[in-house]
Design a protein that fits this description.
Two copies of one chain form a homodimer. With about 375 residues, chain A is an alpha/beta fold. The first copy, chain A, has a single domain, classed as Peroxisomal Thiolase, Chain A, domain 1, CATH 3.40.47. In chain A, about 40% of the residues lie in helices and about 20% in strands. In chain A, strands 3-2-4-7-1-8-11-10-9 form a nine-stranded mixed beta sheet, with helices on both faces. In chain A, strands 5-6 form a two-stranded antiparallel sheet. In chain A, strand 2, helix 2 and strand 3 form a beta-alpha-beta unit. The longest helix of chain A has 16 residues.
Chain lengths: ~375, ~375
Amino acid sequence: MRKVGVVGVGCSKFGNREVTLQELAFEAVYEALNDAGLTQEEIELSVVGCVGTRTYEFMPAVPVNEYCGFVGKGPIRVEAACATGSAAIYTAYTSIASGIVDLAIAIGVEKMTEVDTATSNAVGGRAGNYLWEFHQYGTTFPAYYAMHASAHMAKFGTTEEQMALVAVKAHRNAAKNPKAHFQKEVTVETVLKSRYIAYPLKLFDCSPISDGSAAAILASEEKIRELNLDAVWIEGVGYSSDTSNMTRRENFVGLKASVQASRMAYKMAKIEDPIKQLDIATVHDCFTIAEIMAYEDLGFCRKGEGGKFAERGESDFGGKIPVNTFGGLKAKGHPLAATGIAMIYEVTKQLREEAGALQVDLKNYRGLTHNVGGTGHFAWVFILKR
Amino acid sequence: MRKVGVVGVGCSKFGNREVTLQELAFEAVYEALNDAGLTQEEIELSVVGCVGTRTYEFMPAVPVNEYCGFVGKGPIRVEAACATGSAAIYTAYTSIASGIVDLAIAIGVEKMTEVDTATSNAVGGRAGNYLWEFHQYGTTFPAYYAMHASAHMAKFGTTEEQMALVAVKAHRNAAKNPKAHFQKEVTVETVLKSRYIAYPLKLFDCSPISDGSAAAILASEEKIRELNLDAVWIEGVGYSSDTSNMTRRENFVGLKASVQASRMAYKMAKIEDPIKQLDIATVHDCFTIAEIMAYEDLGFCRKGEGGKFAERGESDFGGKIPVNTFGGLKAKGHPLAATGIAMIYEVTKQLREEAGALQVDLKNYRGLTHNVGGTGHFAWVFILKR
């Protein structure tokens, strides 16, 4: 298999953005091209990730490629719900690893604020034919993850305080990230006193609805050597998906798709002990409970111990493995298709020691991204190494 | 680069189908699995192509994979407008060629009859932010291709009769294909007397709005040898895309994206003379003029001679290169995402000599698929060899 590296990354400011979809995409593309020292002409393939259900652009790849300068190079759009960005990275990766091209860009862009919050939630809940859950009970994503939180609390004694600590960490990191949607610290009390959205999840347990984009340029080893590019190598690729029928899930205390995707990536990257071999992880914290489950599903701690892992600060700077150092989906924001690529951006910046005030200590120069669509309807894991 | 072959193909009946999206997908998946002699358990990756703008399923990969038995294996959906099926084949192809998996399925499925024709056309016209054309003038796809037809007639003297002959051939072939939407022959007079949709295109110059699905199972050379599978090899892969702003197009007498995609595929497959080296071609005849332009853009004849190529029967059985032997988009039907994979189905069946009454003569055992999205906003070409 040909080796593939990340040679340029870009990320827009996340938040309520009064620009078009294609303008938003260009912010990330422009930064990524400058970061790599490349021009559009040198890129052979553009893969556009966009969920698009919350925008009026039905076929987003066409205007995005046009505006960003990839006419002739953008034959494909990908979608995997909230894991769309990772699906775009994957498509660019396999295009290079297969030998079809040597330089490809993955672009993830989402305009979510074109519709109101109620519509956005309904679209999310309806997405993917989740059978009777949405149609009969009106279940939307806060409710789905509330079921996970309730199950985790009941089985393992996980507390609302422990979940609140995940939000506090996210906001503390996002406060130092100028691209984050929210740049304000919060206290445990603020989180606990915020109104319930779906018990036990409160407003501050939930990621916001954000506009945003991210882009990553990938290159073959040959091209990296030829152009003397600075690369962060993709050592591991893992994916999975799970049943859309919640009644068929084995349990609600974790996401089987996350376990499977991470094990596939670990096997490829020869990771036997993620805590010892990784310096940084970005996990899919669409809700605070999702980050706690991710610690367990990814093997950072044993199943059921995620709440205590957060409480002990093991996922914070100085802990066993700093997680979501740029603020996570929770506080940095979660523009669906941008999220998976923003994770690649974050890990790349960290492994290059370009994270400024949010820099982690590096021993292994290796990091992980974990990106989920739905409640594990899709899952992707990548392992990066500098 | 690892060699990749097509080892199983399936295609549903095209037409107005009173089944759900996932049931429709399963028809093709079931046939493809039986054709390959494989089970769902053996498949490692499922790529679902679905444009989806004409259905109420927002994230179609989830229910399709669930229903078809690919839970855990379906982390990605792709879209490239009417070329979506080819984008799915590409993603399965690069996944295998890269070494990530050995067995993958590409599924293309579309339910187009859930909305009325006017809505369907409006969605099509609006798709991809075609700038002022749609918003100011209400241009939908018949009108776009009418501009191509008018330009071709004006510059090269192409006639409405020549375009009608493309429709007559399509219907004659579809009449022998039990899976075709239309199974009735038509005469030149019928086509010429049908009402104008957008001058010079008449009703019988246009492909219909169809429901349908197709699936193809791809495998690595190692897996093909191991399981002793019957393979049709993918020798060439080509793609391109073009500006969405019609005013920026160099001309209207052809599709630059088709030229570029075919030359990329020809280079990879070492095709210097397509007429001499190919036995069969499936081209994107969403309108009759599109097939005439494809003859030229793909190098079957010189630019401007496509009308005469059709008139002389060169694209018919016994001609220089039989084109769209199963009835084409024009008469077999055009369920967007299914189309590109149905082309792989057709060429595979032909190269295996399983096309029955529609079998072409084989000399080179090599065929081509050509799949366009929009008016060349996307283009894909594959070369297959048995």
